[in-house]
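Training component of the fellowship. As part of building independent skills, the fellow (R.M.) carried out the full modelling exercise for a liganded target. The chosen ligand was S-adenosylmethionine. The inputs are recorded below so that the supervisory panel can assess the work.
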Amino acid sequence: MNFPAQPQADGYVTEIPYVAAYQRALNPSLQAMALNMRGVGAWQRGTPMTYMELGCGFGLSTLVHAATNPQATFIGVDVLPEHVATARALAQAAGLSNVTFIEGSFASLAGMDLPPCDFIAMHGVWSWISAENRAHILQCVDARLKPGGVLYVSYNALPGSAAAIPMRQLMMAGFTRAQGSIPQRIGTAIAMTDELKSVGGGFFADNPLAAHRFDELKTRPPNYLAHEYFNADWQAFYHKDLVASVKGLGLEFISQADPFMSIDEFHFKPAARAQINAAADPVISETLRDYLADREFRADLFVRRSDANQRVGDTRFFAAMRAEHVDLIKVRTTLGDVSPPRAPALAILTALQERPLTIDELAQHPACSGISKKSMNVLAFGLAAFAAIEPVMPATGEAERTESTRRFNRALWEKNHAALWTETNASPVTGGSIEVSREDQMYFLARAENVDPVGFTAKALGAPETEIRTRYRAFQSERLAAYQRLGIG
Ligand SMILES: C[S@@+](CC[C@H](N)C(=O)[O-])C[C@H]1O[C@@H](n2cnc3c(N)ncnc32)[C@H](O)[C@@H]1O
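Fellow's submitted model of the complex:
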């Protein structure tokens, strides 16, 4: 049995357990695919490379990708000692020798002996640091990113974030004046803003989007709000600002990191697409897309162009869902629910049920007769954008990758045993993150330790055994096979 197909939090419907879009986009395998979709060659999966993540937090995504790429080198940088200590402890527990965590500021990177990098990524960083720190990052990228290398930057985007700017300013005014701990000061700032809003009229009446955003953020926990809105720095950028910032470094924008975002047919009506296509300049096209979608957040991939980008890899794809669930592939966008064309999607999923195939192999598969190789290219990447199929890691290095990921997942299960730390595990098949609930991680840990999964999990979660027994049966019949296909457990 596979997972019942399930709608995911950001709208994807697949049998791969939910993966946050940003975790997927930080996966070098997905980044290579997003570039390949634009005809730009990138890293060949399974080969050595160096990937540096700036502002890596607790290092979870750096660790996932280090575990699934034992042939490659990973570096995580963060200024907070607690973040780095947690990341290092996990690397040690998992026996990952290909990852280094540097406790240091972006300013300190200039004086460090760092290797040339194939990938430099920063998620949730660029908009939340000072202009001075952005300059330090650019200096580091200039010095360390190889020709052909890829830069991933995510940021609060304009125009979608426009209404949030004065709202955050107001909340900061309350926060700065408030007394007590950070959560208390956040509480005071929210209450003050809410009070002002409840008077009616003025800014919130004129800017319903800001009012809506404020009502939504009020429900979030203080630790989320602390880093999302109450940082000393908070800025939104137009895409063109990013392009201008990295242009002097010889970096060119190629694609949004989430492949789904870069397929216009999924987001815009024909008249809008005609305007986008008529724009003389790619920066203007991208700007039009941001206005049409009123995009609040972007993750962009830039490439330091060179001859190294000539060769587009031959990606093998894996079916993330059963063919009979084809009608469930749907994502809600500004156009409403969008789906891939049904007949070719069904043909491709059918062909991929047995084993992963390349685009050439798909085009020759009997289930796909009638689809030309050229169309197959567009259709396969389109289905991958929906996460209905996923690019897979190569057969080369599989044993080492599987073992390294197994050790890492086991370290996560053990860390989650005492208390929930993360519901992310790593897949040696996709090379990236997969969501696994704490409960399912307890089943895996019990199985790995050869103890009764029901008794063990009931104790860990403080739940009655009878309840866990029923749920364990559902885990075995509904989810286990899908996890196993992803190389987890
Ligand atoms: C919002 S968090 C994002 C963490 C992680 N990338 C994620 O998406 O979950 C920003 C991270 O950048 C780090 N950071 C902020 N300023 C920094 C600086 N000047 N030097 C190094 N790290 C910094 C913070 O400690 C924090 O872990």
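The panel noted the following from the submitted structure. The two ends are 16 Å apart (CA to CA). The longest helix spans residues 398-418.
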